[in-house]
Amino acid sequence: VQLVESGGGLVQPGGSLRLSCTASGFTVSNYGMTWYCRAPGKERDMVAAIGLDDNLAYYDESVNGRFTISRDNAKNTAYLRMDGLKPEDTAVYYCMTHLGGSDHWGQGTQVTVSS
User: Fold this and answer.
1) How far apart, in Å, do the first and last CA atoms of the chain sit?
2) How far apart are the C-alpha atoms of 70 and 60, rounded to whole Å?
3) What is the tens place of the pLDDT at every residue in 63-82?
4) 17 CB-side CA count, 13 A
5) Strand, helix or coil at 53?
């Protein structure tokens, strides 16, 4: 099982990014996928999650209405679309899935929101 995040970078406040989480060793359509973030000096927090049904998604209240979680089964990839970015969204973003009794994490991708 491997998860590889990409798509992070430096963006101005109000800007947008789309993070990708490309999976190997399992099929994303068969498992829930979750995005977390860890801001400097803070604990890792759950940002968004999607269940087996693509219509079932959860968002932390801090991102609800601005971020959208999705997946492309053909590409075996999960996404986090981030709009209306704020400086407080600055963090390393990780994707995670739970299978085989274990949590599996990617290496993370840095998102920096600054003017």
Assistant:
1) 37
2) 15
3) 999 999 999 999 999 999 99
4) 21
5) coil
- The first and second tokens of residue 71, run together, are 């997946």
Length of the chain (residues): 115
Residue 111 has pLDDT above 90, yes or no: yes
* Short-list 13, 11, 33, CA closest to 21: 33
Name the token pair of 2.
Answer: 């491997």
Tally of CB atoms within 10 A around 23:
22
Q: What is the pLDDT of residues 35-56, one digit of tens each?
A: 999 999 999 999 999 999 888 9
Look at residue 115 and give its three-state secondary structure. Answer: coil
∠ CA 46-95-15, nearest 5°, is 75
Q: Which H or E element spans position 80? A: strand 77-82
